[in-house]
Backbone:
């Protein structure tokens, strides 16, 4: 009788525990295309999962080679992304276009900069708006 009770308790505990474990999602992150990529304009926010959003906050620096100049190196731009979970906890990721780090993981998602457009133009200030292309995958 005691063995039956112990077995029954173990089985019930295992079933209850299995119900609490969230299965690992597969496929593209919601809010991205089939390749896991999104395009955001400066200031735009996109809801990714039920509770995670990403905002293209700013371009911290842009030393990339201007579009109308021939350069030895490509240069680099720093993109700031605000990752917010459930409208509460937020984290700012600083990612680079050509230097490391180009990607970071936050909220079980890996964020990677694919491109930043437009390129600067020689003799002009920074572009009035930027567009960033990101790849977002499950970490």
Residues:
């Amino acid at each position: 009788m005691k063995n039956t009770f112990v077995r029954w308790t173990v089985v019930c505990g295992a079933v209850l525990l299995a119900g609490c474990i969230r299965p690992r999602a597969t496929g593209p992150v919601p809010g991205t295309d089939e390749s896991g990529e999104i395009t955001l304009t400066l200031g735009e926010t996109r809801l990714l999962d039920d509770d995670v959003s990403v905002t293209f906050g700013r371009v911290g620096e842009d030393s990339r080679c201007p579009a109308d100049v021939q350069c030895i190196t490509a240069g680099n731009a720093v993109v700031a992304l605000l990752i917010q979970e459930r409208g509460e906890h937020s984290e700012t990721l600083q990612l680079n276009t050509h230097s490391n780090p180009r990607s970071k993981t936050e909220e079980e998602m890996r964020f990677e900069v694919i491109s930043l457009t437009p390129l600067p133009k020689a003799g002009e200030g920074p572009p009035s708006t930027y567009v960033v292309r990101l790849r977002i995958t499950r970490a």
Q: What stands out?
A: DSSP finds one helix and eight strands in the chain. The helical segments are 2-20.
